[in-house]
Design brief:
The protein has helices at about 1-25, 30-55, 70-95, 105-115, 120-145, 150-160, 160-185, 200-220, 220-225, 230-240, 245-250, 255, 265-290, 290-295, 300-320. With about 325 residues, it is mainly alpha-helical. The longest helix has 28 residues, at about 30-55. Keywords: Membrane, Signal, Transmembrane, Transmembrane helix.
């Protein structure tokens, strides 16, 4: 009896041990759920990380180095002008007006269409929007430098008084600028009107004359030696001719500048004095002040010749012995 009870006890204990050992190898629900969540998280992270990297990656905006070239800028302006013109033409057709309609005509057409569509609120708003777009396009054309005669007329029609005021103001500014310009170029009193500001024609003529002589001296070095004998006479002739009316120059020729023409000209003596003084000053500046090392160089005669021509040209530009009374 005792032995049978011991056997039953051993069987019970062994069953309990087997149950415990089997549970040790089976994962709990908490552990399995944690592992599954971890796997889902890792999969989601791994799947979303390339997208996030793509979103964070920004492509740098590289400017076009050829965009500011003159022909590209002109092409862009033509493209903008064509686009604005097409859009403006379409809007003008919707309002039933011509493309060269003035600001007042646009207002009249807008008011007429608004009265016709008095009961249609949507159409009224559409008409006002079209009018505003037309005015905005014309403003954009003015800002883009595409101003036409139509825009100019519109601007004058919208602000006639302002345009008149601006014109008067511009006239006053121009007068003040001319006055300041003349005041800045007034020669000293002791010159007695001998120094006169040269105009563009006078400057271009002197640059052309003395520049050609200098280029001939550069191309033909022997020409310099012979040219130095008569360039001072050319300077005197230029000084004598400057400021004289055309009717006095006709028929006199080169003889007039040396006093051989009809009528003795008192300014000829002044021209001779100035020409000789400039020639002596040029000789002193070019030869007397030249360093010893520069006198034996190959290009020295050309440099000296060019400097003297520059002095002659400057004198002929600013000195005017003739006084138009």
């Amino acid at each position: 009896m005792a032995s049978s009870s011991m056997i039953v006890l051993l069987v019970v204990v062994g069953g309990v041990c087997l149950a415990g050992s089997s549970n040790a190898f089976v994962p709990s629900s908490t552990t399995s759920s944690y592992n599954s969540n971890a796997m889902r998280t890792s999969v989601s992270v791994s799947s979303s990380s390339p997208l996030q990297a793509t979103k964070s990656l920004t492509i740098p905006n590289i400017p076009n180095p050829f965009q500011q070239l003159p022909w590209n800028v002109e092409k862009a302006q033509r493209r903008t002008a064509r686009k604005l013109k097409l859009e403006r033409s379409k809007l003008h057709r919707e309002l039933g007006i011509a493309e060269d309609a003035t600001y007042e005509q646009i207002l009249v057409a807008t008011q007429l269409l608004t009265e016709r569509a008095e009961g249609d609120k949507k159409r009224t708003i559409q008409i006002e929007v079209i009018k505003d777009k037309i005015l905005q396009i014309r403003l954009n054309e003015r800002l883009a430098g595409l101003m036409s005669d139509i825009v100019t007329k519109d601007a004058k029609a919208q602000s006639g008084f302002e345009s008149t005021g601006n014109a008067l103001e511009d006239g006053l500014l121009e007068a003040k600028a001319e006055q300041a310009k003349d005041k800045g170029w007034n020669a000293p009193a002791w010159t007695n009107g001998l120094i006169v500001k040269p105009d563009q024609a006078q400057i271009k003529g002197q640059v052309r004359l003395w520049g050609i002589l200098s280029l001939i001296g550069l191309a033909l070095p022997p020409f310099i030696q012979y040219s130095n004998r008569f360039t001072w006479l050319v300077c005197i002739a230029q000084l004598s001719f400057r400021g004289m009316p055309k009717e006095q120059l006709e028929g006199g020729g080169i003889a007039m500048s040396f006093g051989g023409g009809p009528g003795s000209k008192s300014h000829i003596k002044t021209a001779w004095v100035i020409g000789l003084a400039v020639s002596l000053a040029g000789a002193f500046l070019t030869y007397g002040l030249m360093p010893e090392w520069a006198k034996g160089q190959r290009m020295t005669p050309f440099c000296v010749y060019t400097m003297r021509n520059f002095l002659y040209g400057t004198a002929c530009c600013y000195f005017q012995p003739y006084k138009n009374k």
